[in-house]
Amino acid sequence: MGEIINKLNQYNKSDMYPFHMPGHKRNFPTSPLSDFYGLDITEIDGFDDLHDPEGMILDSMRKASALYQADETFFLVNGSTAGILAGISAVVMEHQKILIGRNSHKSAYHAVYLRNADPVYIYPEYSDRVHIWGSVTPKEVEHKLLQYPECKAVFITSPTYEGVISDIKEIAEVAHRYKIPLIVDEAHGAHFGLDKRFPQSAIQLGADLVIQSLHKTMPSPTQTALLHVKGSLIDRDKIKKFLGIYQSSSPSYLLIAGIDEAIGYVQDNGEKLFEDLSANLEKFYLKAKELKFFEVFRGCDRADFFDLDPSRIVIYSKQNQISGKELLQILSSQYHIQMEMAGMYHVTAISGIMDTEEGFSRLIRALLDLDHKFTEQKRKSLLDPVTDTNIFFIERNKIFSPGETDGFNKEKVKIQDATGRIAADYVYLYPPGSPILVPGEMIDEKLLLLIERYMETGLNVRGISGEKEKLIDVLQNDV
Ligand SMILES: Cc1ncc(COP(=O)(O)O)c(C=O)c1O
């Protein structure tokens, strides 16, 4: 057996509890998909065609659109990435403007780049306390559209990786006043709109195009996702055309059947599954009130968070005394709980309908135990108030659109020499994969401090190379 399968088997057999994607949590004993090779085909006669469905795949897509209340749903086997690429490609052409959340996933930037479009950025609110993005406000969308009425669409992410939701209903109304579509990256919200105890989906709240990663929160295989369309502002033929370009021409029937099974499973068992999840979360949050050193994010009381997804659990120390990376590692090594991701000062757990009561109680027990230890230790804050409070989420100065930077030669410079230079590549943390620097943006001192801070707290900053000397890609012919 090869190393990869050995490692997967080892993880599968271990007692590590997965508060991470995929949403089936490797806990779907009733799934008929376990005979991988027996079921692995692509389009052969009699099996319909993902790119031009007429039979069983079309029926299955219709089942999904009825469940989510979309007008039409497309299955994605290349993740939400393919849906975001197709969605943005369908609404902008070369040099046209699109209003886009600056906290978007890199796939949105890639779409803008591929179409050589001109992004106008909208900056969400943010939280100094947890250092995460907040909601995009309808007011800010209106403000930007007044400034740039030529925008062809609005693209925002809701919920974010940390479960922060924006006011989709109001934002859709603003976009529609300008007769342009609202596209929502709902990659982290495939469980929305299916139960009254959880938030509604953007497709039910007036968005025109919504992309959801089924694999993140639903019992569906990795890479599976949905693209929903509603109303007439989106040209569906263009969506089909671009999905034909961005999706594999040999789609896996295991993935397609996985989508169908997940939808069917939730249709048949959703009421009980969501009821159990809701009860487990309620117990978890109630117990979390006992925490003294840590806090579990419940930010709805703050103006910069329109709403939160209760299934996304964000944990941080009250005075930033522990980095996200350290907490993630302690939870994994000492308590055998694997979180989804670490930010600078927080960790995020993905929970969902396939999680068990035992999983939630292991997490809260671990947190209470650590809370006690750290309170005794009287740890000091890791934050340097001089720099940290004002280096996050600063508006970057956009000199060129990402596509325009192709016209320049690139060079690598030491990061300490990069102030005032224009970025030639992305810089981002993965996850979440939302760039802190985009090609065409000016590099400033605050960005460099932020990169330094990320590195000090042990986070993996992509787009910075070099061993001893840290290097960053910039345009050669600065203007
Ligand atoms: C906000 C957001 N959008 C889109 C994506 C891409 O989704 P996928 O991995 O399904 O392609 C991700 C991936 O993590 C994401 O976090």
Give a written overview of the molecule.
The structure is a single chain. With 479 residues, the protein is of the alpha+beta class. It has 3 domains: 225 residues, Aspartate Aminotransferase, domain 2, CATH 3.40.640.10; 104 residues, Aspartate Aminotransferase, domain 1 (Alpha-Beta Complex); 88 residues, Orn/Lys/Arg decarboxylase, C-terminal domain (Ornithine Decarboxylase, Chain A, domain 4). 35% of the residues lie in helices and 17% in strands. Helix 4 packs across helix 9 and helix 10 crosses helix 12. The protein is globular and about 65 Å long. It starts with a helix and ends with a strand. Pyridoxal-5'-phosphate (PLP) binds next to helix 4.
What distinguishing features does this structure have?
Aspartate Aminotransferase, domain 2, 3 domains, binds pyridoxal-5'-phosphate, alpha+beta, seven-stranded mixed beta sheet, 35% helix, globular, 23 strands, 17% strand, four-stranded antiparallel beta sheet, Ornithine Decarboxylase, Chain A, domain 4, 479 residues, Aspartate Aminotransferase, domain 1
